[in-house]
Input
Amino acid sequence: SHTPLEDVKPCQVYTQVSKEMGISFDAASKRIQRMANFCWECMLKRELVEQYKNRLTPMYWFMLDDARGTMEGDEMVVRCGDELTMESLNCPEVSGVIGAVTGEKLGRPVRVRFALGGGGTAPEDKLEELIRQGSRFDSFIVKP
Output
């Protein structure tokens, strides 16, 4: 049965999870809070990525889907799965948008750095996807 969100009480959830997992009430509450924080971070990142895309030209859109950003102090580290993604995104246009949008959201200046490590699409697959996506636009050039 479906329970309306306004009828859900945290203590009831913690108690139920505690019983079902065979752990203490405190352990259950900490696990649930960690999961809630993780879900919130994922929603925030998705929202930020959509804002980045709204300010960038389409050629960067699917590259952003294969990059993962994490805040390290005042620096957004954008981890790219391969060199093609990093070379494509590591430019003033993209770093400017990522820094501005993230800074607006956090209320403070944010530096942007690109690094290899993260993502998962092979460079050959990415080039094919870039060509496929680019065919939807009038002026799309793939340089060797």
